[in-house]
Design a protein that fits this description.
This protein has about 160 residues and is an alpha/beta fold. It is built from 4 helices and 7 strands, in the order βαβαββαβββα. Strands 1-7-6-2-5-4-3 form a 7-stranded mixed sheet.
Length: about 160
C-alpha cells in the first residue's frame, strides 16, 4: 500500500490538492473520503471537480445522496459521481437506489461517509483520510489497488517528509 501524507494549512492548499487529484484521475477510480463533519471532504471534491473542468456549482449531495458530473479525461467524457452517504439509514438504501450499478469500471465514484454503505459498497482504489489539525487539515491518501497506485503515482503534490 502506497501512502502520501501531507498538511493542508488553508483553502488554497486544499484547492491545490484537489487540482493535483483531478490531473491524476483515471476512469473507473473509486475514492473514499473519510473524516468528521467539517474535515474538508466536500471542499476537496469541489476543488477536484473545478480543476477537472466542471464550470458550475458543486453542492454537497447530503440530501440527494449523489450528484453526477460530466468531465473530460484526455478528451474523453467521463461521468464522475459524488456520493454523500451520511444520511443513509442502512446499506440497503444504497442498493435500493441502484447506486452499485454506477461502480462499473468506467465512472469515477467519490464517496463521503463510505462506512454507511458497508458491506455492500464496492471497495475503494484510494482512501483519503482528512482530519482537522490546528487551523488546517492533515490528509493521508492510501492506494489500495493497482488503479489507486497509478493514481497516487500520477499525483504531483509534495508530501511532508
Amino acid at each position: 500500500m502506497q501512502l502520501i501524507r501531507t498538511y493542508l494549512p488553508d483553502e488554497d492548499a486544499t484547492r491545490a490538492l484537489g487540482g493535483a487529484l483531478a490531473r491524476a484521475l483515471q476512469p473507473g477510480l473509486v475514492i473514499y473520503l473519510h473524516g468528521d463533519l467539517g474535515a474538508g471532504k466536500t471542499a476537496l471534491t469541489r476543488a477536484l471537480l473545478h480543476a477537472a473542468g466542471h464550470q458550475g456549482a458543486v453542492k454537497s449531495p447530503t440530501y440527494t445522496l449523489s450528484e453526477p458530473y460530466r468531465i473530460l479525461l484526455d478528451g474523453q467524457p467521463v461521468e464522475l459521481i459524488h456520493y454523500d452517504l451520511y444520511r443513509m439509514a442502512s446499506p440497503e438504501e444504497f442498493l435500493d437506489a441502484g447506486f452499485r450499478e454506477d461502480f462499473n469500471g468506467h465512472n469515477i465514484c467519490i464517496v463521503e461517509w463510505p462506512e454507511k454503505g458497508e458491506p455492500v459498497l464496492p471497495p475503494p482504489d484510494v482512501n483519503v483520510l482528512l482530519e482537522v489539525s490546528g487551523l488546517g487539515r492533515t490528509v493521508e491518501l492510501q492506494a489500495l489497488s493497482d488503479l489507486g497506485l497509478l493514481c497516487l503515482e500520477r499525483l504531483h503534490y509534495p508530501p511532508i517528509p
